[in-house]
Design a protein that fits this description.
Layout lengths: L1 E4 L4 E4 L2 E7 L6 E2 L4 H9 L2 E3 L15
Antiparallel strand pairs: 1-4, 1-5, 2-3
Protein name: DUF2635 domain-containing protein
Pfam family, one: DUF2635
InterPro entries: DUF2635
Length: 63
C-alpha cells in the first residue's frame, strides 16, 4: 500500500525506527498492509496515496 505522512508529521518505519516516512505527496512509500500502518492511517499520521500515473475515474452521466 502506498502512503505518505500527513503534513507536519514524520512517521517511523515499522522495524526501522531511524527511517521515517515524511510528507512528500509526489514520492509515496510502499509499505505492507499491516496493523502498525493501519493504526497510523486511522490516527491521521499517514495518508493513503494514489499510485503514480493514476488517473481519476471517469464520471458517468445518470440517465
Amino acid at each position: 500500500m502506498l502512503v505518505t505522512a500527513a503534513p507536519g508529521n514524520r512517521v517511523p518505519m515499522a522495524g526501522e525506527p531511524r527511517k521515517f516516512i515524511e510528507h512528500a505527496p509526489d514520492e509515496p512509500v510502499d509499505v505492507p498492509d499491516n496493523s502498525y500502518y493501519q493504526r497510523r492511517i486511522a490516527s491521521g499520521e499517514l495518508v493513503k496515496a494514489k499510485p503514480r500515473g493514476a488517473k481519476p475515474a471517469a464520471k458517468r452521466a445518470i440517465k
